[in-house]
Amino acid sequence: MGYGFLFDVTKCIGCRACQAACKQYNDLPLDSELDRRYPRAEWDTPAPLTGYTWLRINARLVERGGKAEWRFVRHSCFHCERPTCEAVCFAHAFYKTPEGPVLYNRSKCVGCRYCMMGCPFSVPKYEWNVLFPEVKKCRMCYERVKIGAPPACVAACPTRAVIFGDRGTLLHEARTRISSSPGKYVPYIYGEKEVGGTSLLLISDVPFEELGMKTVASGQITDRPVPEYTDRALKWTLGVAAVWAGALTTLYLATKNQEEKEH
Question: What is the DSSP string of 192-242?
Answer without folding.
Answer: SSGGG-BSEEEE-SS-GGGGT---TTTTSS-SS-HHHHHHHHHHHHHHHHH
